[in-house]
Specification:
With about 350 residues, the protein is an alpha+beta fold. The chain folds into two domains: about 1-230, 3-Layer(aba) Sandwich (Rossmann fold); about 235-355, OB fold (Dihydrolipoamide Acetyltransferase, E2P). It has eight helices and 21 strands. It starts with a strand and ends with a strand. GO terms for molecular function: ABC-type transporter activity; ATP binding; ATP hydrolysis activity; molybdate ion transmembrane transporter activity.
């Protein structure tokens, strides 16, 4: 079962030529630079853009084919854009319930209490829209979309209009929503950190075409991944957080691949989460460096060594739990340590970012 999109569109210098299937589960990110066709493709899926000859199917539902065209309001889709479209004359509660009341009772799967708990907006219910922050407004927009009990949620750059601090505040709520809502999500973004934090799969777009469609782990395993264009290669590890110890550090991941992170009460113990580690923040050693201030050093096995780029080699290693950890070292270090596939080593991790 999938969302199938097929479209050919010419608009002057822009040409969209796509034939794509997206699984109906988890979060799929349409990723690429501005102008590559991400939003146009999303609008075709939603029925906001009627393109002659396009074909759109969602499971066994045909939304567009030939002369058949199902309008947006009959597709049962939730939409959230860069700018919120909340109704200013209604309170937060009124906005949240606007679509809920118009959803047939038989289709209502999600309800007010669970959505306000999920998005942390319960205390805002009686406030006017102009009395809440930009990040809170986006959370209300997400809640309103979810309360229509959609069969598909489409998010078009939902954090692009937010400043850095507000984006940092809303990301945990968006991450929680993606994990708990039980609705397949298609996320349009040009921000690698949003993909790494939220996506299960990535559709890489360029100049109106799909270059690749693959699981996030596969996208992060390639040294030439477009996700690395801004900050360089990075690893995204998944695991559960434990409670803080007497030193104020929280364990992440299973024994044998355990990291220690600074205490942060925003994430409860036992929650499945992700951390991001830049390859340039990982060094390699052949011996376990016990007498060192770096707290996180894990035993790894070298899987692959990529050819040098800009004087650095990307070394792909596997942790005890088989997750991929990338390290960036010099060709001289590769030679000195005699690194090759199969080499047992220790990864020294200087910085870890909790992603939620």
């Amino acid at each position: 079962m999938s969302l199938a999109l097929r479209a050919l569109l010419d608009r002057g210098s822009f040409r969209l030529d796509v034939d794509l299937e997206i699984p109906r589960d988890g979060v799929t990110s349409l990723f690429g630079r501005s102008g590559c066709g991400k939003t146009t493709l999303l609008r075709i899926a939603a029925g906001l853009e009627k393109v002659r000859g396009a074909e759109v199917r969602f499971g066994d539902q045909v939304w567009q084919r030939g002369r058949r065209f199902v309008p947006l309001h009959k597709r049962r889709i939730g939409l959230v854009f860069q700018e919120h479209s909340l109704l200013p004359h209604l309170s937060v509660r009124g906005n949240l319930l606007y679509g809920y009341k118009r959803t047939p009772r038989a289709h209502r799967r999600l309800h007010l209490r669970e959505i306000t708990d999920m998005l942390g907006i319960g205390e805002l219910l009686d406030r006017p829209i102009d009395r809440i922050s930009g990040g809170q407004r986006q959370r209300v927009s997400l809640g309103r979309a979810l309360l229509t009990s959609p069969q598909l949620l489409l998010l078009d750059e939902p954090m692009a209009a937010l400043d850095t601090q507000t984006k940092r505040e809303i990301m945990p709520f968006l991450s929680r929503m993606a994990g708990e809502a039980g609705v397949p999500i298609v996320l349009v973004t040009h921000a690698p950190d949003e993909v790494e934090r939220l996506a299960d799969r990535v559709v890489l777009m360029r100049d109106g075409r799909v270059e690749r469609s693959e699981p996030l782990r596969q996208a992060l395993a390639r040294p030439d991944s477009p996700l690395f264009a801004d900050e360089g290669a990075a690893s995204v590890l998944e695991g559960r957080l434990g409670p803080a110890n007497e030193h104020g550090l929280r364990p992440f991941g299973p024994e044998g691949a355990r990291l220690w992170l600074p205490a942060d009460d925003a994430w409860p113990a036992g929650q499945q989460t992700r951390v991001r580690i830049l390859a340039r923040d990982v060094s390699l050693a052949l011996d376990d460096p016990r007498r060192i201030s770096i707290q996180n050093h894990l035993k790894v096995q070298v899987e692959r060594i990529d050819a040098p780029r800009a004087g650095r080699c990307l070394v792909a290693t596997r942790l005890h739990d088989r997750q991929l950890l990338l390290a960036e070292v010099t060709p001289w270090a590769v030679e000195q340590l005699a690194l090759r596939p199969g080499t047992q080593a220790y990864a020294l991790i200087k910085s870890v970012a909790l992603m939620g």
